[in-house]
Amino acid sequence: MNWLDSHCHINDEAFKDDLDTVLQNMVNNDVRKAMIISSYIKDYEYGLTISHPEIEFIHSLGIYPGDADDVNEELFNAYAAHYSDDECKAIGEIGLDYHWNKENKEKQKEVFVRQLKLSQELDKPIIVHSRDAIQDTYDLMKQNPTKGVMHCYSDSAEMAKEFVKLGYYISISGTVTWKNAREPLEVIKVVPLDRLLIETDCPYLTPAPMRGKRNEPANVVYTGKKICEELGLDEEAFKMQLNENYQTLFRL
Known about the structure:
Helix content is 40%, strand content 18%. The protein is α/β, with parallel strands linked by helices.
């Protein structure tokens, strides 16, 4: 069984000069599955062209909360048209981000809810971004029930349990390997293994011992191994569970 990266941005410009090397690094580290996340239609279309004979890629598209102010009917409809694509396995990343912009909360909520409703209509999972907005995120998701994953989860263990009760998966990033990783270590102890995923969110959030360098999907192994170490898990059994979770959520 192989490792997987449930959330990466290798369609980002950060990888435009050495993508072939990045893909080979994945193979070398036995990372054979990855979800390519797009926040822009042009990135989604480019992501669909990325391939490697030994790696299985799937794709997601969503309106990022930081772009909520730019959303009009024409743009929203353009995204919605792609959500019906067979290649689009999830809607995301979507959600709320009050860290960078607290002035447009209502607009962010409006765009988020409209995408939650599309998830319900299309029966496709969502990939949720929430930063400094966890209670509003939870409330809107509870009011608009669907399925999906809390991407790069960075809030409390108690709230993680509440999202699991709603039926969501919790995805852990490289932050669990950092020296100050108190909350992620608490989270992995309360989330059932059949609701857990791992990710890089590359090119961001590089795990130890690679911190200071650009992150890439091959580095997801450090996150997986850290979780195994902390929970006393057999690596092969954990990889098997991760693959089962990934396939179940995204209907592969």
